[in-house]
């Protein structure tokens, strides 16, 4: 269970607020994750229970952010758009990214929170993001122009600057992706992309949380990531964290990546090589 009293005084006030909300939401998730195991044996499985856990975590996150930043707007997976008195600031929240993992008792999921801001009528831009893995107590975070960091609670809690991998040889590189499933389009296209990447690289992982895929790419664990059809809340925080770590983030289908949800991320050397295989 994360210690909410741990010192965060070196963080900006905004970062403290976002990390606190993520940790608060995670307490609920962790408690419910402990229960999920017992529910696996029922025929229907724990689906309803997990959907309640998801909603509960979102409520806690919104309640905390709303208390500390009154008036800000929200876009949250379960609640949708909540327009506040301040339309220039919007928190984008996925209270549980990796739902299928959670549902199956697989300990790989995260809370993702981003803040978007509109200044002087210019289009909104991502200014802050946190991705928190309650199982490993890893907090990935970034603010625009300040770099990306990882606070690993299990290793003494010091912040470490995130740097992406410097690999430039495709054959040596490890990639992450998301595989479309029942109800999602693009199965045949995905198989072609996978064929192109798996045959020429060190391997491809499908861990089941796009937010953590992005955070792990920012941390240099993966050399690149691509996935199509993601939602704004899946990728908002991860885009900023990846960019601030020094990675290139693009849309696979033109336009703005937050709008299309078709994302590709890699360092400068690998980007053209990955693109060529998945576009
Ligand atoms: C999902 C995860 C997964 C991705 C799916 C997303 P959810 O989010 O990010 O990795 O492949 O497309 O929907 O449903 O667990 O919040
Ligand atoms: Ca998600
Ligand atoms: Ca979710």
Describe this protein's structure.
- It is a single chain.
- The protein has 279 residues and is of the alpha+beta class.
- Helices cover 36% and strands 25% of the residues.
- A hairpin with a 6-residue loop joins strand 7 (148-152) and strand 8.
- The chain is globular.
- Mean pLDDT is 93; it is low at 1-6.
- The structure holds D-MYO-inositol-1-phosphate and calcium ion (2 copies).
The CATH topology of the largest domain? Fructose-1,6-Bisphosphatase, Chain A, domain 1
The rough form would be described as globular
Low-confidence stretches: 1-6
Strand fraction equals 25-35%
Radius of gyration: 18 Å
CATH class group of the largest domain: Alpha Beta
Can you list the strand order of the major beta sheet?
2-1-3-4-5-6-7-8
Q: Judging by the overall fold, what is the CATH architecture of the largest domain? A: 2-Layer Sandwich
User: Count of helices?
Assistant: 8
Class by alpha and beta content: alpha+beta
Average the pLDDT over all residues and give the rounded result: 93
CATH superfamily of the largest domain: Fructose-1,6-Bisphosphatase, subunit A, domain 1
């Amino acid at each position: 269970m994360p210690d909410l009293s741990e010192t965060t005084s070196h963080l900006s006030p905004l970062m403290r607020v976002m990390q606190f909300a993520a940790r608060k939401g995670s307490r609920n998730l962790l408690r419910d994750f402990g229960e999920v195991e017992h529910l696996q044996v029922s025929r229907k499985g724990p689906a309803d229970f997990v959907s309640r856990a998801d909603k509960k975590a979102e409520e806690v996150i919104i309640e905390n952010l709303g208390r500390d930043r009154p008036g800000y707007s929200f876009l949250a997976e379960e609640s949708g758009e909540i327009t506040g008195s301040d339309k220039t600031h919007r928190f984008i929240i996925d209270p549980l990214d990796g739902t299928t993992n959670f549902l199956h008792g697989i300990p790989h999921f995260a809370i993702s929170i981003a803040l978007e801001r509109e200044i002087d009528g210019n289009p909104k831009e991502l200014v802050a993001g946190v991705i928190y893995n309650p199982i490993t107590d890893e907090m990935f975070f970034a603010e625009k122009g300040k770099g990306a960091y990882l606070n690993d609670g299990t290793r003494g809690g010091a912040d470490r600057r995130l740097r992406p991998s410097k690999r430039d040889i495709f054959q040596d590189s490890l990639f992450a992706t998301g595989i479309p499933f029942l109800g999602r389009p693009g199965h045949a296209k995905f198989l072609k992309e996978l064929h192109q990447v798996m045959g020429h690289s060190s391997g491809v992982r499908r861990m089941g949380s796009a937010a953590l895929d992005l955070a792990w790419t920012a941390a240099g664990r993966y050399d690149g990531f691509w996935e199509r059809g993601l939602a704004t809340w899946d990728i908002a925080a991860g885009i900023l964290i990846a960019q601030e770590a020094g990675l290139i983030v693009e849309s696979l289908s033109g336009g703005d990546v937050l709008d299309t949800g078709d994302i590709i991320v890699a360092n400068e050397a690998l980007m053209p090589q990955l693109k060529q295989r998945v576009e």
